[in-house]
Design goal:
The structure is a single chain. Helices cover 29% and strands 17% of the residues. It is of the alpha/beta class. The protein has one domain: Rossmann fold (3-Layer(aba) Sandwich). Helix 3 packs across helix 5, helix 4 crosses helix 6 and helix 4 crosses helix 7. The chain starts with 85 loop residues before the first strand and ends with a strand. Belongs to the methyltransferase superfamily. LaeA methyltransferase family. InterPro entries: SAM-dependent_MTases_sf.
Length: 373
């Protein structure tokens, strides 16, 4: 059974045309076409040089690039105890009894997460992963912190021979799924019930601020991977950057990043895992080998000239515009002691900054792949 899991498609004059037909310089490669060797270099996977802008850096081409989008899949109910969500400023958060997470789990957040998935898939040149998996049969696959389940759904559709499990603290995934996929409510910090040497591939994405000890987590993942199995860890940076405009130390991008870094220090669940070298360091300490780290630049809004990056930036911008309060309200009010009004002031400054195309803003995305010996 093939199930298509769709996300809101950006529309309106501010959004770029779909790069469904890429230029010859940017071949589109699906997950099923990825070879066992390292992925070829493409325009969407060249992070070192500054991205070419489609606007004048520092100019006045700062129209709001936010876009309209419809609702995505709603979640189905399970048991009352699991759905006893915490309420905060009109938003819902995972039940503290089943785990502790700083992000909301409501429909508004789900829409943003699906848009971010679309942006990251475009950034990887239409791939779901970079690990050199077997294309005929990837085997048993685990997606930790699956969120809305969109990555697991896309993977299960792409590889019908794979046996895919997606786990999360919240049952915010759809019930209609491919027969080779199932979702489980689970706290990855607890002891795993699966056998050791069980999975062929483990995937984790956007887990910053959730794990107290990444070396311990990576060791657990290693233990449950088969020999020769792969772990791919993807994190989005907290710090907004620009290669074209010098941003001062008091810029709101720096304020935003420091909020999360400080909150991570207080909770003991660091957000700094997204920084260069951190994921690879913990993988190495856990015992992974053949570790490869890929650093990419994800535009914030539609300033990039490359059509695929332009669309990825548009997706990412709308995700932030849609729910920047959701990303920041819990850590600011519950961890750092801010008032709700103070959060709104920072969010307003952030919205103004990410709408400013002439800043050519972007964030880094780090993808680290390791193999179990």
């Amino acid at each position: 059974m093939a199930v298509t899991h769709s996300s809101p498609e950006p529309s309106g004059s501010a959004g770029p045309e779909s790069p469904a037909t890429p230029s010859p310089a940017e071949p589109t490669t699906s997950a099923a076409q990825t070879s066992a060797s390292a992925p070829e270099t493409t325009a969407a996977l060249e992070p070192e040089a500054p991205l070419e802008a489609d606007v004048q850096p520092g100019g006045d081409d700062d129209n709001d690039s936010a876009i309209d989008a419809g609702s995505v899949l709603s979640t189905d109910t399970l048991t009352p105890s699991i759905l006893e969500y915490r309420q905060l400023h009109g938003r819902t958060y995972p039940n503290a009894k089943t785990g502790d997470y700083w992000g909301p789990n409501d429909e508004r957040q789900s829409e943003g997460l699906d848009l971010i998935h679309n942006a990251l898939t475009l950034l990887l040149n239409d791939r779901l992963f970079l690990a050199p998996l077997r294309q005929d049969d990837p085997g048993r696959v685990l997606d930790i912190g699956t969120g809305t389940g969109i990555w697991a759904l896309d993977f299960a559709d792409e590889f019908p021979s794979a046996d895919v499990i997606g786990t999360d603290l919240s049952p915010m995934q759809p019930s209609w799924v491919p027969p080779n996929l199932r979702f489980e409510v689970d706290d990855c910090l607890l002891e795993w019930t699966w056998p050791e040497n069980h999975f062929d591939f483990v995937h984790a994405r956007c887990m910053y601020g959730s794990i107290p000890d990444w070396t311990e987590m990576d060791t657990k993942i290693l233990r449950h991977l088969k020999p020769g199995g792969y772990f791919e860890h993807v994190e989005i940076g907290c710090q907004g950057l620009s290669d074209h405009i010098e941003l001062g130390p008091d810029h709101v991008f720096d304020t935003w990043a420091q909020v999360f870094y400080e909150a991570g220090e207080k909770t003991g669940r660091p957000f700094t895992i997204c920084l260069d070298g951190e994921m690879a360091k913990h993988m190495r300490a856990a015992g992974f080998v053949d570790i490869q780290e890929t650093k990419l630049k994800l535009p914030i809004n539609s300033w990039a000239k490359d059509p695929k990056l332009k669309k990825a930036g548009t997706y990412f911008h709308y995700a932030l515009e849609r729910d920047m309060e959701g990303f920041s309200m819990f850590v600011c009010t519950q961890v750092l002691g801010w008032s709700k009004e103070e959060v709104h002031v920072m969010v307003a400054r952030m919205r103004q900054a990410i709408r400013t195309k002439s800043l050519c803003p972007y964030i880094t995305v780090n993808v680290v792949v390791g193999r179990k010996p």
